[in-house]
User: What shape does this take?
Amino acid sequence: MPGKNMNAELNKLVRTPEDCSRVLVAALESGDIELSVALYETSAVLFKKSGEVMTGLEAIRENNAGVIALKPKFTIAFIKATLSGDGTLATNRMKAELAFTKPDGQLVQTNVDTLEVLRKQEDGSWRYIIDDPYGSMRAGMKDR
Assistant: This one.
């Protein structure tokens, strides 16, 4: 659970749904595991590339630590948010190029084309409730 200072920082950083995607990418690139996890609600879900669902902050922390270990570099092409009629929910679609080096030294370049669901918090900031880094690509992916 993020501390009071982290919540205050997030309140300033994530004033729009699109901000969540930008801040998450920056946190993963800089190795800020605490910030990367604080962007999610307590019972949020995160999809693996395989389609397996991880639930809760500890699972998300473990996943994000693995991503951070790869020293990822993202190049965002676009982030598109759509708000619900009452402005309390949003979907984000982010298209980005991702480059990282595997432990064996092999450079990997791939794309992420996300589908994210976010909820506006009482303080006006936003948090992920569902995050699928490959969501917009899923229909074209093979079942695994």
User: Anything to note?
Assistant: The chain has a mean pLDDT of 91. The chain is about 30% helix and 40% strand.
